[in-house]
Amino acid sequence: MRKKIVAGNWKMNKNLAETKALLSELKTKLTGSTDAEIIVAPTFTNLHSAIEVLEDSAITVAAQNMHQAKNGAFTGEISADMLKSIEVKTVILGHSERRAYFGETDKLLAEKVNAALEHNMTVIFCFGEELQDRKSNNHFSVVENQLKNGLFHISSGDWKNVILAYEPVWAIGTGETASPEQAQEMHAFIRKTISEAYDQQIADEVSILYGGSVKPNNAEEIFAKSDVDGGLIGGAALDTESFAAIVEAI
Ligand code: 13P
């Protein structure tokens, strides 16, 4: 049985005090409310405090990015070892904002994936097409290429440490969400692509999250789709009530 997961990607939001306050509220609000795995991804400077605040909670903490090298002269960067040393065991890689604003390519992402897996971290691997891809009916091939070029070099055994997040770029932060049918159609395609490249068991066991304007009022119908195993939530993860409502929808 694959896991149900709701993850909050906080992006560049919340200072230290705000992070602690939101996490304390979430900890109280979400205790015992769901069987789903709950993950929060605050910014780098607040990860250590987040781990401390959530020490006695089932909510786990992820980083939003990391560098592919072990260590060295990479001013401003953060390594897998640094994350592991503060007990951060999960990392989001390949978010469309990293791809678009920081030039992250499939090739670079493949290196980041390797670094994370070598450190026994769980990778939340993000991908998704842009509006023009969908309009020109290229969305399936764009997604397939992102998966093949960034992820499909990993071994069968590494899939247990991978969570996928399909995030159509046109739905991120726009208030326009993919319809439940569009999400289901793409998630089923992703599973089929994995089963062809690997095998059916790996395809069946990997959790595939949907991301892009998931809100309390649309979460339930999206999560109800058979190949949607949860969500990667941006804006609505920054507020206790709305994140809790989304968690309850799973
Ligand atoms: P929104 O939920 O704000 O659209 O963001 C989705 C996202 O990018 C999560 O990684």
Question: Mind explaining what this structure looks like?
Answer:
The chain is α/β, with parallel strands linked by helices and 250 residues long. Helices cover 41% and strands 15% of the residues. It has an 8-stranded parallel beta barrel, surrounded by 5 helices. Strand 7, helix 10 and strand 8 form a beta-alpha-beta unit. Helix 1 (16-30) packs parallel to helix 11 and helix 5 packs across helix 7. The longest helix has 18 residues, at 180-197. The radius of gyration is 17 Å and the shape is globular. The chain binds 1,3-dihydroxyacetonephosphate.
TL;DR of this structure?
It contains eleven helices and eight strands.
List the topology elements.
Blueprint: E1 5-9, H1 16-30, E2 37-41, H2 47-53, E3 60-63, H3 80-85, E4 90-93, H4 96-101, H5 106-118, E5 122-127, H6 131-135, H7 139-150, E6 162-166, H8 180-197, H9 200-205, E7 208-211, H10 219-223, E8 230-233, H11 240-249
Parallel strand pairs: 1-2, 1-8, 2-3, 3-4, 4-5, 5-6, 6-7, 7-8
The structure holds 1,3-dihydroxyacetonephosphate.
